[in-house]
Amino acid sequence: MFVLDNSGSMGGASIRQAKASLLLALDTLTSADRFNVIRFNSTTTELFPAPVDATLQNIAHAKGFISNIEANDGTEMLPALLAALNDKNSADDTYLRQVIFLTDGAVGNEAELFAAIGEKLGRSRLFTVGIGSAPNSYFMSGAARAGRGTFTYVGSADEVAPRMADLFAKLEKPVMTDLSLILPDGVSAESWPNPMPDLYLGEPVVVTFKTNGAQGAVALAGNREGQPWRQIFDLSNAYPVSGIEKLWARNKIAALEESRIYGANYDAIDDAVLKVALDHHLTSRLTSLVAVDLEPRRPANTLLSSSKLPLNLPEGWDFSKVFGETNVQTERHARIDVPDILLAQLRVNDAPPAMITPGDTDLLLPQGGTAGRLLLIAGILFLLLGSMALMTGIGGTAARSARP
Hints:
CATH architecture of the largest domain: 3-Layer(aba) Sandwich
Strand order of the largest sheet: 4-3-1-6-7-8
Helix content: 25-40%
Shape: flat
CATH topology of the largest domain: Rossmann fold
Distance between the termini: 112 Å
Largest sheet: 6 strands, mixed
Number of domains: 4
Oligomer: single chain
Structural class: alpha/beta
CATH superfamily of the largest domain: von Willebrand factor, type A domain
Radius of gyration: 36 Å
Strand content: 15-25%
């Protein structure tokens, strides 16, 4: 199942990279595969009513559909996500159901989307592909973890072919699925990540867990090529290694932070994150490493100041696609405000008292390039000179007319 975001934020280079990635993906399908294509912006369209066989005719039809897609309008991701996760044949275990989601992740309802993934995932696996120079990595990586898949980032046109080739090499060869950790009786543990992702060729799965004892055996179980697989590890053979506890703690903090999007109590999450970070001396959202400068560089009692700086759009974004055509002129002809600190330094200069209001005090009103009195005197002189020239011309004409 392929899902393509063609909202306004995908305009420009992003939509070209996404379409190129999707066309490349279609070329990797074999006659044994089935597929469908969903595109979404403010609306959602499914190319076929249900997944179809990857025949040459169906693939050609999908390529024509993709080639005509343009980026515009808003981003309504939830309907497309629900459509992609809608498994109409959940009892059919002859196919491994994989969803490839190509988007920049420019959404604001991450919690709602994560909840939908947790509720509707079923046997599906969700693989997110981040497109463009500024994808929402928080959502993309979180969606991939919740969907028991992986996150791939395509930042430029040059990266489309190698990154998508690596992704589909993994998708074609899932080494093991449905991994789980089985503890001996009487032993409890906190393990992360939980649930465990599938194992793909060339991409190891690292699991950390903390137990209340080191007796018995731990079993790692899964499904390998349709057959049950199990590996036993004797806990008595474990030995201490520096850094393992910090790795476990970091994984736990990540899991705690992610539980926020599933509706967990914010205060309880903060307390738990703070405790784990302090116990293991880690930086987190609530803890920091503090550096003390013994030689101050700023004079004592000097006030600090802050200011806002304008930012450019991420590379490849199209302003009109993101904010609409009506806002382009507003952006180009934006008024520049004079800072108050500069206005306070100006003074009124030669302005008639009647023209000054109390609010104008200490402001320099616009002045002409030449004084008004000088212009008035020059005008009178020009009028006099013009009159004299006119009178001289009339007198000379009359004198010439009187001659025989």
